[in-house]
Fold these 2 entries.
Entry 1:
Amino acid sequence: MSSGTVPIAAESLPAVPLTLEGASVLHQMMRIRWAAWKAEPADRRASIVAEAARELAAMEENPSGQSGLFSLLGHKGDLMLIHFRPSFEDLNEVEFRLARLALFDYLEPTSSYVSVVELGLYDSTAKIYKSLADRGIAPHTPEWKAEIEETLVRQRAAMRPRLFPETPKTRYACFYPMDRKRGEDKNWYQLPMAERRRQMEEHGLIGRRYAGDVRQIITGSIGFDDWEWGVDLFSDDALVFKKLIYEMRFDQVSAVYALFGSFYLGVRRPAAELDKLLAV
């Protein structure tokens, strides 16, 4: 600290942790209109499937962001499409490309979810906020913003593979949205940042123990959809989802502050198998 510098009090620092954003993500859940589909002649069905399979195969290998098709278990739908793309404009193009396929005349949307890959930076936030505060740099000033952006630029470069992931080609996918409680009794957003950081570190330790068995992708959806975050889990063993989520329920951040939406469990179906999936 230079002579004469007055440090900024901790309670005056922003409560919002820094985040990095990457790929835009769209989940589409759909139900097959089986009666209408079965009513089509076999040659017409074959033509429709071939067209859709070509489009989906191209999306599976799209170098700028992949799509994955999953067959859903349960009553919430028959199919789930997960799309990772560089921007929301790209996602919008994906939606319309698919909607123009003849197959989509036989699909009924049951749900969808829009979000963006998000990496929380609690540790980096604590360090840079303290450094800026110790030097007397006030929050939201031009100097503050410049140093924050410099930190984020470095972090984006280092984390790019995590920010723009390829769709894992595992056998199973589990997706669910979630919130942090913000009610009268328990409110995550009124906890001091240091306490939120501690709880999230504890929460993350559990996930890291499963790193070899499951791939987890967290997406932020505040301002984009009805929940605050979306969680995608990918694995070749569906039982890992149960074990991981169950164990996480016992840590403080989940046991006290978490709310969960509907869970979707899907089996991966490559585009090349679309004819088998829609066989009648």
Note: The mean pLDDT is 94.
Entry 2:
Amino acid sequence: MILCVTLNAAVDKTYIVEGFRAGEIFRVKEVQVLPGGKGINVARAIRVLGGDVLATGFIGGHNGAFIEERLAAEGIPSDFVQIPAESRLTVSIIDPINSSETGLYEQGPAVCAEDWERFKEHFAVLLEKAEIAILSGSLPRGLAADAYAELIEMARGTGCSVILDTSGEALKTGLAAHPWLIKPNRSEAEGLLERPLEGVSAVVEGIKKLLADGQEAVAISLGKDGVIGGCGYGIWRVRAPQVHAASSVGAGDAFVAGFTLAWLRKGDFAEALRYGTACAAASVTRVGAGMLSPSDVEYLSRTIKAEKIT
């Protein structure tokens, strides 16, 4: 089972607004409302692709009830820890005419020390059946920057591998706890390494530095340019196929979903990078994080190659 953790879960509301501009009133052409947060997006994509998954984290209030009920309706198993405060709302405004995306993301509820201890106890029980734990997204208010590091150490103690997809101080402190894989985007990796990563050679050198410092595996996503990833067996580049993009929201989460499934099924790092890239490309052709088509993934995966760099 793949355990997907979303500590700052959300209700994701997407508006399709043609010709959107700030400071004006518009009629919304289309509205989509889904449970969200990066870990939930990953869980949705894994479920769509036929994987065994469980979503967990914190939820609260009316938004939390919606998240739980809608996940059940989508056939995504979940087991969340309830808190009194309301789960957050995120709004994405997509303008198909100008090919623009605007995001408004609430901070979300604060988590107290007692709730955090309850979650760690819950997490320990869920780890007993997990092959891989995926820790994704921002930390809610009230939690220290080393919250993910605590969960990583717990998982490592049970032999469960961890994939960490976050940013800023949470990524830096999480890295020190030695997750199996980290998946920053270029900007997040630059913050982690404290240097620019412009060009393929710079990204490769950044991955080499992380591997030399003890990180087991790294995948740096480059948006429309694909991904470069490395582990002890080498470093590979996978170029993203050209597709008609409807929304980039959740593309990185689709990559994580595909990568994880391919790794569990085949144990081949380059193949996991390739399949994850196909999932990310399939994801951007549709509005809704994790709402990809397995047939699109299979078609795109046949067009993608993993090129070994070192």
Note: The CA atoms of residues 137 and 166 lie 5 Å apart.
